[in-house]
Amino acid sequence: MRLPCTLLVLCLLKTAFVHEAAGQDEDFFPFPYIRGSLTSNWNVTWCPRDCTCPSEVIVDCSGLDLYSFPKNLSVGIQHLALQNNRLEGIPYEKLSRLVQLKTLNLHNNRLTSKGLPHGVFESLENLQYLYLADNKLTQAPRLLPPSIEIVDFAANYLSRIYPFTFGHKPYLRSVYLHHNNLMNAGLPDDMFAGSTVVTTLVLSNNKLTHVPSDLPASLTRLHLQNNRISRIHKAMFWTQLSLRELYLQNNKLSSEGVDKQAFSKLQSLEYLDLSNNNLTEIPARLPPNIVVLHLGKNKISSVQEDSVSRVHSLEFLLLQNNQLTNRGIHRKAFENMKRLHTLHIFNNRLEWVPSSLPHRLKSLMILHNHITEISLYDFADTYYLTELNLSYNKLFSSKIHRLAFRKLGRLENLDISGNFLTLIPAGLPGSLEVLRLQNNQINSLSSEVLSNLTLLKELYLTHNRIKVGSIAPGTWQEVHSLRLLDLGDNDLSYIPPDLPESLEYLYLHNNRIAMIAAEAFYSTPNIKVIFLRSNRLREAGVPDVAFSDLKYLQLVDTTGNLEYINILEDSKLDNSTEQVQRAPAAGYQETSLLQNPRT
Ligand SMILES: *[C@@H]1O[C@H](CO)[C@@H](O)[C@H](O)[C@H]1NC(C)=O
Ligand SMILES: *[C@@H]1O[C@H](CO)[C@@H](O)[C@H](O)[C@H]1NC(C)=O
Ligand SMILES: *[C@@H]1O[C@H](CO)[C@@H](O)[C@H](O)[C@H]1NC(C)=O
Ligand SMILES: *[C@@H]1O[C@H](CO)[C@@H](O)[C@H](O)[C@H]1NC(C)=O
Ligand SMILES: *[C@@H]1O[C@H](CO)[C@@H](O)[C@H](O)[C@H]1NC(C)=O
Ligand SMILES: *[C@@H]1O[C@H](CO)[C@@H](O)[C@H](O)[C@H]1NC(C)=O
After folding, report:
1. Lining residues, ligand 3, CB within 6 Å
2. CA distances (Å), origin 568, targets 407, 465, 518, 554
3. Region annotation Disordered: residue ranges (predicted)?
4. Which ligand is nearest to the CA of 297?
């Protein structure tokens, strides 16, 4: 089974500091009913007070603030829910007699290791699921029954695990130990001896300094992020032939500390996260089936000819926040990478777009570099690109070749904001849907540059130097699909004329607009939202007729003008139109808000 890509995208954008929930495991909540379901009205005498007993074998005493273990539990019960209570201990005789128990949920109590007597789980010969996360345990139970399948001890203070805690458990599949105080010395030598079907081991957020040895060969997921691991020895992972997901981000790995063969035998590995370490090079001999390789936030300065190009399955390569220069990237570094579609290389030291980008690339995030020039050839082979982010580089209009984007017939999203552009680049592909050019020095708009952009929906030009007089007639003529136009923070003295009919959102805040002509919105009958905040408007300069035919208008923001402007007051609109004070949205506080409920 391959990891689903949609999930991966989410993962790779969020993995770094997400608290790892065991609940991500599909078999984590085996509890076979929902509280309050139809069957929950059994009038059975043995159900402890305040608890729910949906069947003879299920007792739910969760969330009752219990300080002590419930009395009179029937010996035959199989599932006992005691999560979210205040238990500090469990008397040996009360628990050990429940020999039919399969599920015991003690998540989020106040249990200490002292409060769990030795051997308290030993007689529970049918126990499969044991949840003890969010308690105050300092040592793991010395012995769990051989029937156990899933164990969650996350978010305790564990510093010690014993040989028979997880050893000799023929059915054990998943072990969650994240957010504890585990050091390597607290783990037994052969922690999983005789436990041969373990697939998931989560040890993130502990104090490990190296990868535990003798891990079961059956592992598919191993999470070791947020530890202090500084070394990975040569044969460390040589038996992990099933491992698909290896998380090592936020450790102290340096390139010297990682053996050159360390990852070479991980033939099933699909997801490798080494971000936020101290690597200066990409690890050598990466196995060929990796799909997602996360190397962000290291000190990597080079990509050698064969460091990633042999990873044939690679789809996502994340190299952001490193020290890459163009000289450090080999000419053939990405050659033959037929599946690579997402390359994040932002926040590095690139001065130009690396040559020979992977041919199948769809998303290139190359923002926050030092790129000064886009040549005719930079994007000559990347026909599949749909998303290109060149923002916050050092681009001048004169240094972007007028045909640079000509081959990008699938480009939908282009971001060149935060550069030094004075003009909208020429020759933009007609496939564009979102164009971001804010924070440049654009001072004029000509009709040609937008003429092919018939699919363009959103255009961001905020923080430029545009005057109404420098917008050429016909500029908006062909942008038939434009719904959002952001011209905030420019030099406009009135509403630009002939805006496209498709327009719904118009941002004109922080300009110099002093007057609104009666016919200002004639060409935009579909407009919904107009931001006019912080201009130079007075009540007299805002004729109500300008708005009276706008059937879909929901909001006009005139905050921060020279006078309080109440568009509604004299409005000829019928009285179902209300003025509403709403909580400020997205940094805007609306003091004059026109609400038209007919929409
Ligand atoms: C449970 O017992 C109560 C009173 O003892 C009674 O009113 C109720 O109808 C009984 N419910 C069922 C489902 O038998
Ligand atoms: C426990 O059960 C016994 C008889 O089975 C009963 O007398 C006693 O009241 C019960 N205690 C509680 C707390 O329900
Ligand atoms: C990273 O490695 C350098 C030497 O290569 C070392 O000086 C530095 O302390 C390391 N940083 C961390 C966070 O381990
Ligand atoms: C480009 O990067 C900036 C961050 O600087 C981000 O806000 C923007 O959404 C990105 N653009 C695209 C098209 O992804
Ligand atoms: C618009 O597209 C046509 C053909 O697709 C092309 O010939 C023309 O040069 C383009 N115009 C601009 C301004 O890019
Ligand atoms: C609004 O119109 C309704 C009838 O359509 C009328 O009953 C109501 O008094 C009017 N309200 C105001 C404030 O004019």
Report:
1. 252, 254, 278
2. 50, 32, 15, 12
3. 576-599
4. 3
